[in-house]
Amino acid sequence: QVQLVESGGGLVQPGGSLRLSCAASGFTVSVSAMSWYRQAPGKERELVGSISGIGLVPNYAQSVKGRFTISRDNAKNSLTLQMNSLKPEDTAVYYCRLDTWPPRWGQGTQVTVSS
Fold this sequence. Notes:
By secondary structure, the protein is mainly beta. The protein contains no helices and 11 strands.
């Protein structure tokens, strides 16, 4: 059974960093296409970035390019999102997704960027 569990969210000051993790079970992260999404209050869920199942370079939304990095931790069968130079507009609930049809979602983890 596919399960995704995000962790690592929290409160951070502008300019700070956070590392999110998405622990996966029921499939192998290293060969799966996956994505990170986020949803801010009152806004639609948006794509942050994604990684293919065949090892191509991840792609990112323009708003996070150069600040966020998606990677896999194959030993832990997890997907990570390293977020640097955080801004208040990065505040949102962050979700990981297994890019199958239908897609599978985690429960999300809250990231708040505020001084």
